[in-house]
Please model this.
Amino acid sequence: MEVRRAQGCGQHHVNVNACMYNGCTALIVACEVDHINVVERLLLRGAKVNLSQCQGRTGLIQASQNGYTDIALMLLQFGANIGSADALAQPMNKGATGLHVASQNGHGDVVDAFLQRGANVNIARNDGRTPLMQASQQGQIDTTNVFLQHGADLNSTDDTGMTIYCK
Model:
């Protein structure tokens, strides 16, 4: 049923950017649940790739959180902002990008894809925490290695003075 709605968007003048009751668009939901065919159809029908839901999350952040590399790459091809931040997140996560959420969840493939496409390896959240800090704190060894291969700063400190060497 979802695919039929997405396929018909251009023919029936459906607003592909309409928000549901929770502020999500069809694109954000499709990114969250790994429906790459629906994501593609919505983007081809004019879905705005950088729209965020009421919680401040974009489709790119949703795909990153869940490790959907193919969807993340498609969104980037359609102009998604690789550095867009989750502006309305809980206070401790404000400023988190797709790189942050992918790193804390151990999605090294997404992290590597972002870094290969120019994402800032040392981008910090509002509290100064970098994606490397997120990955190392969560015990994501493979993802931490991806950051090291891309030259992440081992001496970055967050707002409390903490580094990757101490929690």
Q: What stands out?
A: Residues 1-10 have pLDDT under 50 and may be disordered. The longest helix spans residues 36-44. The CA atoms of residues 19 and 25 lie 5 Å apart.
